[in-house]
């Protein structure tokens, strides 16, 4: 089974964890589950297996930063977070804990589970696990989408007083 297909299946399973958190999926949620899996399977054959360190390090660091930026951006659009992002926003909304703490705990837990299932543990995995949460929180603040990333579902609409 291809990795992208497994990603779609796992994403659908993670959506079940939303039930006790009362999170609601949106168009972006469904698109995230499907598009990420399909895109991975389409692109992965063209990615180098072992790029030179001078290429690998910027790709790794850039990937972490871009992923955090994109996460804050698409959650801020309020079209529905992806499976792990919705779990994060739901936990933040229910507990009041910070995005950086919740996401870091989630990612570290996934790394530990993956390691015990036989996965490899590299510097990029560790950097992602401890870096993406704080970066999501920072980008959300910079872009003014903190409420969305913290799981607040109400969309605030600015009203302009009518002039006669």
In short:
The chain has 164 residues and is mainly α. It has helices at 3-16, 27-43, 53-76, 83-95, 99-116, 123-143, 146-149.
Protein described:
The chain has 164 residues and is mostly helical. It has one domain. Helices cover 68% and strands 0% of the residues. The protein contains 7 helices and no strands. It has helices at 3-16, 27-43, 53-76, 83-95, 99-116, 123-143, 146-149. Helix 1 packs antiparallel against helix 2 (27-43) and helix 4 (83-95) packs across helix 5. The longest helix is centred in the middle third of the chain and has 24 residues, at 53-76. The radius of gyration is 17 Å and the shape is globular. It starts with a helix and ends in a 15-residue tail after the last helix. The model has no long low-confidence stretch (mean pLDDT 90).
């Amino acid at each position: 089974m291809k990795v992208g297909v497994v990603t779609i299946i796992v994403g659908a399973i993670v959506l079940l964890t939303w039930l006790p958190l009362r999170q609601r999926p949106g168009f972006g949620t469904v698109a995230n589950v499907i598009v990420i899996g399909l895109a991975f399977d389409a692109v992965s054959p063209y990615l180098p297996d072992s790029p030179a360190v001078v290429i690998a390090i910027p790709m790794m660091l850039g990937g972490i930063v871009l992923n955090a930026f994109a996460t804050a951006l698409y959650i801020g659009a309020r079209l529905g977070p992806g499976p792990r992002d919705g779990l994060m926003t739901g936990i933040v909304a229910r507990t009041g804990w910070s995005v950086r703490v919740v996401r870091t705990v989630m990612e570290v837990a996934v790394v530990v589970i993956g390691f015990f299932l036989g996965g490899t543990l590299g510097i990029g995995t560790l950097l992602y696990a401890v870096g993406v949460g704080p970066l999501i929180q920072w980008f959300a603040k910079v872009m003014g989408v903190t409420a969305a990333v913290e799981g607040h579902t109400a969309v605030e609409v600015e009203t302009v007083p009518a002039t006669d």
